Input
Amino acid sequence: MASFEWPPSGGTTIALYANFAAFPAASTSPNSFAFDENADNLYFSNGTSWILIAGAGGVFSIGAYGSTPNAAGGSISGGTLTLQPASASYPGGVTISSQTFAGSKTFSSQLLFADGNNTAPGIALATDTGSGLYKSGTNKIALACHGIQTLDTGLSASSLGNVGIGVSASASDSYPLLIQRDITSAGVYMQISNTDTAASSKATYQLAADAGNNNGEISLFTSATSTAAYANAMTVRPSGSTGKLSLIGGDLSTGYVTTYTGGDYTSTGETIRFNADHTNQLMQSVAAPTSPASGLKYYNNSDVFTTKTTGGTISSFAGSNTGDVTIGTANGLSLSGQALSLATASGSTTGALTSSDWTTFNGKQSALNFSSPLVNTAGTVALQGASGTAFVGSGGTGASTLSYTSGNTGSTIASRDSNGNTSFNAVNGTSTATATSGQTIAMNAGSAQTQKTTGTSTCTFKLPDATTLINGWIYWFNNNSTGTVTIQNNGAGAVTTVPGGGFAQLICTDNTTTNGVWDYHFEIPSNSSWGTSALTIGALSTAGLLRTTSGGVISSAELSGDITTSGSNAASAAATQNNITSIPNLATVGTVTSGTWNATAIAIAHGGTGQTSASAAFNALSPMTTGGDLIYGGASGAGTRLANGSAGQYLQSAGGTSAPTWATMPGNYYAQAYYPSSATNYWSLGSTSQGDFSVSGSIPSPSTYVNSNFGTISKATSSLPGINFSAPRTGVIRFTVTTAATTNASALSFTLFLLETTTSTTISSQAANFPSNQSVAVTLTGYFSATASTTYNFKLQGQGSASTTVFLDTQISTGAMMVWSMEYIT
Output
């Protein structure tokens, strides 16, 4: 930074500008100061350019490594850059302290770890530092679990990989795997499991031999303490009483294979024993209980059977019950060598039934007896009536003659012609009458074709299941009641309604679903008639309707003649569209595209306002009731009344969808205090570590330029450079502290810190370069969140790049050497 003299020539005034762009040219204001009110920065003109010497912007020094990780990996406060350490949540630097990192890391070179041991592995788990990997010896790596070595790996004498479980790995080439366990009360098991339930699943322990070495062996290593009875022996123990020992492609040589029934056996020879008493055993030669001739013997505790061998082939089986098998009466059996077969039965062969034959046989009927009119003649069943007659039907009678005709003459049986048509003089469907009482009548395929209703109430008919009908099925509904008849499909879906006095025909046009598809048509009621000359409509009550099928709009073309009614409301008029001027209940008129509404105002319940002017219409819909009320969007945006607030209040938003409220404007809270310049009362500090200033003289209480609602402002604790006050309300206070500092010796870089001591909060810091024996104006700006009625103590601390003493004592404005400005901004 360029040097400058203090105080500047021509006076001590600092010019204030709204922003840096408003500064005059530096060449026109040499050796002068200017303050940027927008950025809170103080500049000095050296006659060529404006130089930033103090303020909120700029980085002038690098502080000691921080301890608070953040998203930026560092922070800038008052011109000082402070790097922050990395953590599991934020980036940053690597320090010499313990740290936790997050995210995948890729290293292009080796990662080196300490050797460690079983209680403190070189690579350990965060939640169990006794578990991990460590170096257990030369060319050896071990796995520790909670401080105990569980697996050891290493190289043999020939640099082959060996493993030890529960014991150190062997150095011998012959023991690639060692497993050791010292247990007194239980055995040591090595288990191979396959939990799959498929029939082909199995668990296999395989001994694989290299080419030229076809030997695989499972043997018992006998120690010096082995029990003599079991020395050099190995027991294969099945699980439970149904276990088996299977040999696949192998043999048994020397010794016994016995079931695990307790005890060992000392008989000589090569024997497979199945029982401990020597019964049921296969043997090559035995000394007891008998000594049959050479061969493979089977002893069943009473006889010895011997298979004689010739050249390795079994030629005979000697002993009792050794005769050849023969077949008596064949009965479909045949013997070929050692194969016994049973033939399939046929018309000429006795034998076994096939599965299909069995099904037929198993489902056969017992012998049947027939009675009239069924007769069985030589296995043929026929339908026959009395002698000389034909059978008509179940429950019917025989007739000597039957007449069949497609004409509409009297006959016993009706027939259809080649087109499928039949003619009748008359076909009458059934009819049923129902008095209406608001009930629902469920119809079925057997319901009467004509449904007649009487009475003064309503009624609902639910049509039959359409799949039980045929397409074209017809029902008639004759509503002689004064109430409406509702017709629904089988699923209670609406089909149509029949008004009082109405007559409707319903036709099933699609019977593929339960509900079906129904068409319907209405006939003119009994009090009306029509013909080619006139349409006569009975008396219309005030609830009567006049409408057409073209959407309800009656056009002049549709009213080319006269409309004539009868009864008490009879009227006649020239039938043009303009002649229809008043109909008591015009329910369906379609779309009205022209004309003037001259009727009564439409009520709110029918979509109107019930009013005849804009102001009255708005008021009819408005929720406001009192002068000063406001309308705001309530639940789902519905217009809602907000009553007027008190005088001087302002409308405050609660954010989101919450209702606004009236709130009282907080008062203005600001103050500006200062310490006057003094040659005897000042502060000084000469240290390269951040710390408090030393106090010289008697520091007075600060004076105030202005104080609005801040209360009493006192000097800081221990008369340090600062202030003390009780917060008048809760909110964020903006601080601006301006002071002059002077060094009386060599130049240095010096940083001022603004702190609050009761909460140990650093609010701001600012670094500046001090020329030798010259003054520098330093401004610190920061923000502090205060709680109402809480007493706070604010002070300045310092730290220099050298031990040169810095004094806070130089006059920077009229009669002041340090100014504290505070203002609530929230």
